[in-house]
Amino acid sequence: MRMTEALVPTLRSVPAEAEIISHQLLLRAGFIRKNAAGIYSYLPFAKRVLDKIEKIIREEMNKAGGQEVLLPIIQPAELWLETGRWHVYGQEMFRVKDRHNRDFCLGPTHEEIITDLVRGEVSSYRQLPLLLYQIQNKYRDEKRPRFGLMRGREFIMKDLYSFDRDEEGMEVSYRKMYQAYTNIFSRCGLTFRAVEADSGAIGGNESHEFMVLAENGEATIVYCGDCDYAANVEIAPCEPAGDEGVVETERKEREKVYTPDCRTINEVADYLKVSPQKCIKTLVYQADDQLIMVLIRGDRAINEVKVQKVHPCNTLELASEEKIKELTGAGAGFVGPVGIKGIPIYADLEIEKLVNGVCGANQEQYHFLNVNPQVDFQVTGFYDLRFAEAGEPCPKCGQPLQQARGIEVGQVFKLGTKYSAALNAKYLDEKGQERLIYMGCYGIGVSRTMASAVEQNNDEHGIIWPKAIAPYHVVIIPISAKDEGHMAKAEELYNKLTELGIEVVLDDRNERPGVKFKDADLIGFPIRITIGRKTVEEDLVEYKLRTEKEHEEIPFNEVPEKIKEFLER
Ligand code: ATP
Ligand code: MG
């Protein structure tokens, strides 16, 4: 490819809307352009990267026994009504109507469609196991589309579904996919970690997420340095901490105190000169159409995934100010559990141990001192409702946990019979008995993987593509496009490398060398070859790796060998 013919519109300035580095760099390096919130066009260089990631995925899926299919993006509502997910999916689902006013959605995922296919075509144990996958656009009307390709509303996903005779079969498929995912992300050149995960709305009973480790990751994981334990903080189990300092032994009488304008835990703690650990953070949630109250220690954050385990619901959102006032008589900030009746009140395990705590008095500008659970208020139950933090004991071996941020690039689920039962997907076993098919589902965010690779591999000058997924391997930069000698050598090398099947770009633009070097770094070609006076006079070129600071001078003729050796390493 010649740079004069390529569509790689690089930008000098950082686009204002891009908050994280991968988003900035993919825009600046001319890989993507935005069409609407969470909706992007992939330009030619991005398409090449996506193709390479998809090629790796296809190879590993096929190796694990997967067969590729292509299912419709537009899906009829009937199937989603059969599993009950038409209503569960809520606002994240893009819904459309046809000319006859019939309901459809743009596929956010494909359990319904694929199970419908399999129930129609599979009838005997001889046809199982079956592993079917596809790579295509998915549609989710995310509440907060952001970070460019990281959280799009249209994005590319690989999704595989496994169909097995029984639970053991499902285990085997699950392990195959786990291994395939490990191979895929390793081959893409990413630093990642598989962690135990929540199975969320998809359902099922065991799940792992594959997390690319990056500071800007939306997910937080905890892992043990001593054993193999690693989990998303959403599900990592927590024991109540000891914190002897906050545990008094003698219960005191409850007392109402004036706390003007103290709305946050820190304001209350400062004003009353108590530690935040003694404060009870009280939040009112709207769980579907019911209000619930959740209590947690003031220095902790409520883990909504755990709340939803205790109180199953489709949507869990903070209640409106209006509803909070109606329930408690006070605005958020002055709310507490004392005197609240008629709704479930869930408290974290640490609240149970609290003696003489502080909470909102359900009256504007007032809090209670010396509040004691079971004396001053009753709860529906005490549960683990918080996030695990660094330094806490590993649930497996007791050693202190470490914490990191991650980007979820893939997730694997054991679904069991959730979908086969809902959609009546059965087969006849060896004895002629009808049985439900056991399923698993396995997703990879292909476009998110591209963004994650950038998030993890960059410097102040631009992207540093891992060589397996770089759009091109090599850029040749003639110092002067006007100099016939430079251009002749550059063309000669370009032709030679192209013949050898090396993916190469010739920067034949009539630009200053500085501009071409800047773009080469920004775009992130793994290898840069510079051709100039020394090439013409001494037969030497500059050979530079994107990962290295310095270049080497090597003989013109040795370039192909040197590149091949690097690419095969
Ligand atoms: P998240 O928790 O990030 O919303 P999810 O659990 O909803 O992800 P899955 O349904 O498991 O995601 O989808 C499989 C994969 O698709 C994810 O691991 C992720 O890599 C990718 N993915 C999911 N949502 C998006 C999105 N909005 N934009 C880009 N990629 C996405
Ligand atoms: Mg999601």
Keywords summarizing the entry:
single chain, 569 residues, alpha+beta, Rossmann fold, 3 domains, five-stranded mixed β-sheet, binds adenosine-5'-triphosphate, binds magnesium ion
What's the number of helices?
A: 16
Unique bound compounds: adenosine-5'-triphosphate, magnesium ion
CATH architecture of the largest domain: 2-Layer Sandwich
**Silhouette:** globular
Query: What is the third-level CATH name, the topology of the largest domain?
Result: BirA Bifunctional Protein, domain 2
Tell me the distance between the termini: 24 Å
Q: Which helices and strands appear, and what pairs or packs with what?
A:
Blueprint: H1 21-28, E1 32-36, E2 39-42, H2 44-63, E3 67-68, E4 74-76, H3 77-83, H4 85-88, E5 94-97, E6 103-106, H5 111-121, E7 130-139, E8 154-164, H6 167-187, E9 192-196, E10 206-213, E11 219-224, E12 230-232, E13 255-258, H7 265-272, E14 280-287, E15 290-297, H8 304-310, E16 316-318, H9 321-328, E17 345-348, H10 349-352, E18 357-360, E19 366-371, E20 381-383, E21 401-416, H11 418-423, E22 426-428, E23 434-436, E24 438-445, H12 446-456, E25 458-459, E26 462-463, E27 474-478, H13 484-499, E28 504-506, H14 513-523, E29 527-531, H15 533-538, E30 540-545, E31 552-555, H16 559-568
Parallel strand pairs: 3-7, 15-17, 17-20, 27-28, 27-29
Antiparallel strand pairs: 1-2, 4-6, 5-6, 7-8, 8-24, 9-10, 10-21, 11-12, 11-21, 13-19, 14-15, 14-16, 18-19, 21-24, 22-23, 25-26, 29-30, 30-31
The protein binds adenosine-5'-triphosphate (ATP) and magnesium ion.
